[in-house]
Amino acid sequence: MMRKYILLIGALLLGSWITFSLLQPATVYSKGEYWKVVYKPRGGGVTDSVGHPWSGYIKWRGLMEPKVLQVDLVMDGELVNLFEERDLKKNKDANFDGRTIYDSMTFYDGPELGSVQAIKITWEKDGEVVSELLYLKWKRRMFVKPLI
Fold it and tell me: Phi then psi for 56, rounded to 5 degrees?
């Protein structure tokens, strides 16, 4: 009898967690061979002028740290510069830590994927300049981190 109650409570908690997760705003996501892009809303704080600003990151998926040369947005079919090489020097005070580029301004008021379709990252690999184009799309969240 006690086992049924424990299973029922567990099922209710799991169902509540899944329901809560699915009710959260979707994230903007893309994953390529070398890079992954994630933008998601974050809770508005005292310094935020909008209730739920968005922030994101572009993460390197390779083994060795890359030398990133440029990051561009693809807006209405045109390349618009987001970060240049001087912005992407590895520095504790900068937006690049050697593996992750942090971006809190691109979708500050929320993503408009109608105008920003992709992100193009250009870096140096084995002395050659290579780039990867990551098409952005909405992704529902099945499980969010517990509030604890």
Answer: -155, 180
